[in-house]
Design brief:
Elements lengths: L1 E6 L2 E7 H6 L12 H18 L7 E8 L3 E8 L2 H6 L1 H5 L10 E6 L3 E5 L2 H15 L4 E5 L2 E6 L6 H14 L1 E2 L4 H7 L1 E4 L3 H8 L1
Parallel strand pairs: 3-5
Antiparallel strand pairs: 1-2, 2-4, 3-4, 6-8, 6-9, 7-8, 7-10
Organism: Paenibacillus albiflavus
Pfam families: MecA
Family: Belongs to the MecA family.
């Protein structure tokens, strides 16, 4: 479980599928309202307080992004008192633990993102995956690292798993969003990165 502060009142938490499975949360059920997810959220808030000094008391807005191959990204924002007052009646009927789950927005992303330390690794992985991902991929440079990102691809399950396995061998899965890369990173190849890397190198 990795977490970072995005602002004074906002944090981002990245959970891999391994993090979820260790807590008994299966991949297919990770966005369902279950007791285990509530326990996990309380654990995350405790860790956020101890590691980042993020105070989870009061009303929170929670955004949950499910991503294939990566896991789950949770963005937690401490909301205003106006939000609290507008939901005051509902809060009075809630248990203390349930206050965390006041406003939850669930989104799913089909974007796959991997980060590489060395450009040579990006070239190597591109040469291996080009038979199944030749028309895909965008390449970014961000914080002195190389980011290879794929949008939704029409692949069979076995091909998809092979793609993830190869990418994982050379790089690490990342929770960096496309919006962050486009705004703060440098776009090296906007599309067909795999094909271009194979052609040029």
């Amino acid at each position: 479980m990795k977490m970072e502060r995005l602002g004074q009142d906002k944090i981002r938490i990245f959970l891999t599928f391994d993090d979820l499975s260790e807590r008994g949360i299966p991949k297919d059920d990770m966005l369902k309202e279950t007791y285990k997810l509530r326990e996990l959220f309380i654990e995350m808030m405790d860790q956020a307080y101890s590691e980042l000094g993020f105070d989870p008391s009061g009303p929170l807005a929670v955004e949950v992004f499910s991503m294939p191959a990566q896991g789950m990204v949770v963005i937690v924002t401490s909301t205003s008192m106006e939000f609290y007052q507008s939901h005051e009646d509902a809060l009075e009927d809630s248990d203390a633990e349930e206050i965390y789950a006041m406003e939850v927005m669930l989104e799913q992303s089909d974007i796959i993102t991997f980060v590489f330390e060395d450009f040579e690794d990006v070239i190597r992985v591109s040469k291996i995956i080009h038979p199944i991902a030749n028309d895909g991929g965008a390449l970014y440079k961000y914080k002195d690292k190389w980011i290879l990102q794929f949008e939704q691809m029409d692949l069979e399950e076995s091909q998809f798993q092979n793609l993830i396995a190869v990418l994982s061998e050379y790089g690490e899965v990342s929770s960096i969003t496309q919006a962050v890369l486009q705004e703060y990173g440098h776009t090296v190849m906007q599309s067909e990165a795999v094909k271009q890397l194979c052609n040029y190198f």
